[in-house]
Amino acid sequence: MGMTKRSGNAIKESFGEKLFTVLNYAFFCILGIITLFPFINVVAKSFSSEAAVVSGMVTVFPIDFQVGTYQMVLGNTQFLNSFKITILVTLIGTFASLLMTVLAAYPLSKPHLKFRKSLLLIYVFTMLFNGGIIPTYLVMRELEMINTMWALFVPGLINVFYMLVVKNFFEALPEGLEESAKLDGASNTRVLFSIILPLSKPVLATVGLFYAVLLWNSYFNAMIYITSPELKTLQLYLKELIASTQEVLTTAGQIDLNRDLNQAPEAVRAASIVTATLPILLVYPFLQKHFVKGALVGSVKG
């Protein structure tokens, strides 16, 4: 009787665990669908006809499939120019931010650094307080950075939170590696670039991805510091496009509305959003193997 009772309890526990697993999978599948639905809806609208989009018939699948909106978007000179500027700013800004982040995090990861706690306090203070928009603008103007590409990434060159993540990762590395290298005559710079950084690929890939996403999606700096159309970023272009979707159909006489067969302003807006989202979205699979490890290891002290 006792064995049967224990066996029955075991079966009940096993059934409960299976039920819990099934419910978990169902919950996260539903959550994933809810999360993806807005993006899928935008993609469907970008491939749908004017009548279908305007009437609100488009949900998940395109109706009256067409690609004219993408031809219009990719043929728009302002879109292409903004796309190039954003790619350039993202590449240069990510490299510069990673470099400055590493150069700040490495010395701060050393317990023997003088005034280490005071320096960390100053960095953390900047996470909570800043100079404000007007003083920052005046500084940028005095530095003659207004209407230059530098204004798009220099103000946020170092993200303190990411710097602390990299610092914690450096602290978790074995100290013996540096000590042995210094016994062989290696300088601090040689140790950093030849030993520490090759071992830090996971956290560098993770933080680099974070920086790239921030720069790609940023429009505030461009809105504040840029007035020249040649330096307008993609996100600022999209912001203006969303505010006035009709503009893309009449800009610079590039599109003849009499020849435009099936392109609604909302569909053009959707196509622009999809085209702007895909490049940064395609980066994730290549960094995925480093992403989880870098985020977990770098966010806690070893």
Automatic annotation (TrEMBL):
Listed Gene3D superfamilies: MetI-like
Cell location: Cell membrane
Transmembrane segments: 22-44, 85-108, 120-138, 150-170, 191-214, 267-287
Topology with respect to the bilayer: Multi-pass membrane protein
Annotated Pfam families: BPD_transp_1
Protein origin, superkingdom: Bacteria
The family this protein is said to belong to: Belongs to the binding-protein-dependent transport system permease family.
Protein name: Carbohydrate ABC transporter permease
The species this protein was found in: Paenibacillus nanensis
